[in-house]
Amino acid sequence: GQNIDQPTEMTATEGAIVQINCTYQTSGFNGLFWYQQHAGEAPTFLSYNVLDGLEEKGRFSSFLSRSKGYSYLLLKELQMKDSASYLCAVKGGSYIPTFGRGTSLIVHP
Amino acid sequence: DTEVTQTPKHLVMGMTNKKSLKCEQHMGHRAMYWYKQKAKKPPELMFVYSYEKLSINESVPSRFSPECPNSSLLNLHLHALQPEDSALYLCASSQDPTGAWDEQYFGPGTRLTVT
């Protein structure tokens, strides 16, 4: 089976940096995805990690440590529009991604 | 075209009705998925079609019946639903169901209310 854990909610200030953590336990590993989902909308793809290390994409970066079963999503220069739910999804041996519960990020002015 | 479309956007149905949700993609993706999502919860996988064949059914009640008429279309037939089935139903597609780097593209969802 798979177990994915992320914090339920985080708050941060506009212009700041926030790190959203995700820990996982899976049977096999074929990659970890981060998605952003605004309320009432579909998830949109942010990043993918399959090897250890940091992947940077503009204001967003994602890190993976396979030995620790750990990933984080780093959001820099926060904007109000970044208020959303951030979903960590892990592909285990079945190649089907399993989603974590999501972290609701609230950005304050 | 990197879009997954879903119709209808909203659906209200009674417990004795029969309705269908539709999903379409023209990206040449070979995997298509149905998810159910309740408020403030993550998407829950219902069905996966791989190369137009049902590959995964996550113990979904028979009142939900998926259909994949061709590689671009995915339907979800609904019959005798319960109020607790009210949720956002998301369709997704991905290029290679057996590939590791295989991001999913989600449709906007159908907001279903069962009365």
Essential attributes:
heterodimer; A: 109 residues; mainly beta; five-stranded antiparallel beta sheet; 11 strands; 0% helix; B: 115 residues; seven-stranded mixed beta sheet; four-stranded antiparallel beta sheet
Cα end-to-end separation of chain A = 41 Å
- Rg of chain A, alpha carbons: 13 Å
Mean pLDDT of chain A: 94
Task: Write down the secondary-structure element order of chain A.
Answer: EEEEEEEEEEE
Extended strand count of chain A: 11
Oligomeric state of the chains? heterodimer
Structural class of chain B: mainly beta
Number of helices of chain A: 0
Largest pleated sheet of chain B: 7 strands, mixed
- Tally the helices of chain B: 0
Beta fraction of the residues of chain B?
A: over 45%
Shape of chain A: globular
Task: Tell me what you see in this structure.
The complex is a heterodimer of chains A (109) and B (115). By secondary structure, chain A is mainly beta. Chain A contains no helices and 11 strands. The model of chain A has no long low-confidence stretch (mean pLDDT 94). In chain B, a hairpin with a 6-residue loop joins β4 (31-37) and β5 (44-50). The model of chain B has no long low-confidence stretch (mean pLDDT 92). In chain B, strands 2, 4, 5, 6, 9, 10 and 11 form a 7-stranded mixed sheet that branches. In chain B, strands 1-3-8-7 form a 4-stranded antiparallel sheet, with no helix packed on it. Chain B is an all-beta fold and 115 residues long. Chain B contains no helices and 11 strands. The A-B interface holds A 30-31, 33, 40-45, 48, 50, 87, 91, 95-102, 104 and B 40-43, 45, 48, 56, 88, 90, 97-109, 111.
